[in-house]
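B., you asked whether I could sanity-check this one before it goes into the benchmark set. Here's the sequence:
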Amino acid sequence: MKKRNTAQLPVVLMAHLSIEGSDRSGHDESIGGIEYVPLSAMGEGYDYLALGHIHCPQDIKGSHHHARYCGTPLPVSFDETYPHSVSIIELEKGAEPQISTREIENPIPLVTLPHDPTPFEDALKLLEEYPEEKPAYLRLNVLTKGYLPPDCNEKASNAAKGKACKYCYIKTTRERQADTDESKPISIQEMQEMSPLEIARLYYRETEGEEMDPELCQLMETVMQKVKSKNNSQSFVRNMKLQKLTIKNLASIEDAVIDFENGPLSEESLFLICGETGAGKTTILDAICLALYNETPRMDHAENEKYKDLSQTFSAKKEDVAINDSRQLMRRNTSEAWTELEFTGSNEMPYTARWYVARAHRKISGAVQDVRWTLENKKSGIQLNKKNEIKVEIQAAVGLTFEQFCRTTMLAQGDFTKFLQSKESEKSDILEKLTGTSIYSEIGAEIYAATKERRTEYENQNRKLEGIHILAEEEVTAIKEAIATQNAGVKEANEQKTTALAKRDWLKKYSELLLTREQQKKMWEGKQAQLQSDEFKQKELLIKEWNATADARNWLSTLKQQQQQQQQNYAQAGMLRASFARLDGGSKWLCGFLKEQEDKLHRAEKYLQEHSPLLPMFEQSQSIITGLKSALDAQTRIGTYNAHLERLAAQQPVKVKERTDKEAALTRKEQENHTLQNEINLRNKQLETMDRPALQDKKNKLDAGRENLLQALSALSLLAETERTLNEAKENEKALNAKVEACQKQYVLLQTAFDSKKTSYDDIRTLYDKQKEAVEEWAKETRSRLVVGDTCPVCGQEIKSLCKDEDFQSVLAPIRTSLETKEKEYKETEQALNNNRTESNTYGTLAENARQSTARALRSYNLARTDAQAKCAQCNDVGLSTTTGETLKKLLEENKLEADKLNEKLTEVQKLSAQIITLQRQKDECQKHVDAARQAFNSADRVLNELKNNIVNYESLTANEKENIRATMDRVTPHILWEGWNTEWENSPLSFIDRLTQATRNYRLAQEKQRELKSAIALIHKELEGINLNKESIDAAFPDWRNAPAATQEMEIKNLGIAWNNLNTQASGLKQSISSTADQMARLQKDLTGFYAANPTLDENRITVLSAWSGFRIEALRASLQTLKEEEVAASTAFHLATGQVEEHIGRKPQIEENESLETLDALIANLEEKITAGNQSIGQQKLRLEENTRNIDRIKEEKEHTDQLREEYLKWDRLCRHFGDERGKNFRNIAQSFVLKELLAGANFYLQRLTDRYELECQAGSLTILLRDFHQGGSARPACTLSGGESFLVSLSLALGLSSLSRQSLSVDTLFIDEGFGTLSSDYLNTVMDTLEKLHRMGGKKVGIISHVEGLKERIKTQIQVRRIDSSRSEIEVVNTL
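And here's what the prediction gave me:
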């Protein structure tokens, strides 16, 4: 830095990180996940360190004002309660920075109400009292013991409406509950605020009973940073909102439109879809699902069954048709059907989804065609037609798949428990979409991948360590001796090679010099012959003549060009003379045309003069014609109104009688309904005297007692089973520990034997390698000294053949046999040791598993004993003993006898209740007739009133039209100037209008013609003047042209004048060119005549030949002749130089023997090079072995340390993976979602408590399985499948409402539909459910649509979608408010 900063300017260093010792007020623990860095790590050499990342302004301790966080100008979170400012830094080289601050006042502060946590109602009161005109972002600080009600956000938002402040969210603080390990539910808001590390630590604390150690926390932080770097943000979307549904010929519904945004449905959150059974109530849900998903809930049940299309309804052939084919919803005897849904997606985009099916050729008899399913984005105008594209876009717009839509938004017939009983993976998918926490799956999968990667690295490192080989000390010594011997041989060979190279180079160069001298001699002789040739002399003469004739060549060339130009001039004169004749004819035609236009102008002026008295009428003609047509139209309407009045007068008596009859029928039906209600009231009084609640309460207590006894017996059985399991686990652990100990003892013995065998094998192997090397060297030396045919120096006999390598190797046979024996013993001992190690590891793993199993069995036994004690204590305080089972069985028998007596009394009550139900059904049926009679009366009354109003309206319209006709005629009459026009108008009004229109058009055409003729005549006069001037100019230049024959010819007036101008210009230029060219030709001819006289040897032909040679060719010819001369001199010089080089080289000749030639020397050098190369290669290989051995010794130490590090790293990751990781990330996702599921169940329990006090929903930590705690059965937990139909509906309804509340801040649909679940409820439960729904829907949030035929709902829910039958196959829909 000092080298580059030559100007000695102040140096500022900037960094975005966390420095040790900094104040992190207002930040969470991770502060972005970046570790703290010491100030010393930033180095030296700077004058000021500008830091970013921490929002609190501060100087770093120990930096002496050289390092500072300026902080943010404004707070970015509610916890940043310190002052915010901007910092001004003044720097001068060598001096300390001068720092000043300017505090920034936040115009919209972030306020927490109150400062300390308080109950929700108190915090809400403070929000309501907050000043209306004071702007701020508000956060409520709420203290809660359990769950906040689901409508708390709605209440807070409503309290802030109309104020300058804005409500943001609720910060919750839960009171600590003493002596409880139960996990607390986490809201979506809290889930989004908590990091995955906090979720992991919370789960670890609950499952392990201790805090998650820092080592695992650090690993989790690493994974989080890696995943977050891929996914920078998570988005949360808004509700999908239904707007309008259109249905055509779907099932029984013929034609219907349901508007969810306008009319009665826009005003209420609770509405009823009612009608007779089979009228088409559920078809409304089918229409919504078909438009969105091309599927329906009720046809989804009918799996892949098929039937034969015998009636050929779907095709021309009798093919198989799937039972769940949605096209079967098209109403019979229709040619087409569709449903169209307009909605706003959760991505705030407006859409129109359409499902359409039709028969071939739009005929009722045609075969049913394939479904056309489309989705249009009304904002962009893009329409999707492919099913795969629509599914992807729908899921993005709605935020739910079809199955998730049915589980959370549309509780169809038979589907109330879908979410309740769905698999864990399905629940997790829905909860993940609701909370936007897909990062947990990614973290879990990343943990698994990281662990797998560490395990692979560790295993690879082990294999790498085992593959490193080290030489023995004897092998190192032998290699060094071999290197010394081979170095001496290579040195001697190099000296011989140097001498041979010098001799070979002299001979080779001597041959090259002799050859060069001969070549140079031949080249010199050839150049001399070229200089003496005739061709060379002719080329020199050509160059001399070309230089002397430069002027003559130019004169001759220019003369020929001027002759060609004069010929072109005469040709152009002929063409211009023809143009002159043609234009002269055009001028004559123009004079005649001028006379014709003057005659036409005279006739037009005469016509206008004759019709000038009618000009005022023609000017007002458009207004007159409009008024006359208006009068004709009014007369036509009067006739139509009179016809309507006659028809309505005939209908009035019939409608009066029909209304009277309907009124009488309504009175009779109301009397019958009143009689049935009196009978029902009488029996209800009888039922009250029997005190049914007391009997039912007593029965519930007996049932609860029986359930407690059964649970206690079950707990005793479980206790005996867990005790037996614990004893078996202890025995198994003891046996496995004994096997582990035996294996360890055997391993010591085997290790000793293996070391001994390995040492023996290594010794014999070293001895074998040395002897083998010695034998090979001896054989090589012997073969080099002996030749076949020589006399043996030992025995004196002739050598007939040399021994092969195999003959020498036989010397090693005894030691090789010993080596193989030792190797076999060593391998067998090693295999036994490995087998023992594997067996020991296996037994160790089994023993560890057995210890864990024993611990789990002990925990299960203790839990079972505690549970058994608690359940027995609930049964009349029975304690655990050997007779506990008999005591419980006796109490169970007594409970059964008492329950049987109570059931007899309840049977009588049920009979009376059945009578009441029968009467109620009769009364409901009678009420239907009353409603139908009232509707018929209202309809007849409405029709009669409409008829009377129509008569009055038509009479008024007739009078108005007559008045309009009179006013119109009074206005137009003064403007019509024709005499007797009234008679023509009355006889044929349309002909009169046509005559007036035509007369006006003719007068205006005459005016336009007059203007056009005047303009044309003026133009012709102007053109003729210009033509005469040009013609006179041309006559002066070419007098003979005026005698050229000319014919009259019609031409465009404007073009004729332009053509005369052009001809005049061309003729003037041509005259001048002819004169100039003639002068130049005479001057050139004179110059050439003088040149020929001065040079008699040259004539025009020779000059023409010389002109063919360009300057470039002559220069090239001159250069080639000069080059030839220079090459002759160079060849002579090269020959004498080569002769001198040969003589000089002979003087440096080395001592060469007679038998030494280039061939013999090359062979000698090649042989020496092979010997040197082989020696160097051998030396290099030996040195490499030594270097590699040295490196391997160092590598073993390093790799062993690296292996230990990798093992420790792998074990840490393996611990983390066992808790949170798996290949697809499902484990950690389920852990996170289990906390959100508790919040969901808390919301569901909030609703369920208002429906019944019997049940409560719960789940366990890390699990998504939902259980029901039955407080009528001693608070025992049981699965959802054990509920009755009515109970399933209550629980599922609560769960759906809770799910709706949970999803209100994320993706969801704004309307919940409940289809035909109320029929499973008793009258008491029905009233309770309706009371609850009416209270809940007033809290705001979702709309709830109930589909039911239960009559009691019609009186309770006033906003209704009524589905009424038109006939046996058609229904209609009407949205009403019955208030």
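One thing to flag: Residues 692-785 form the longest helix (94 residues). Otherwise nothing jumped out at me.
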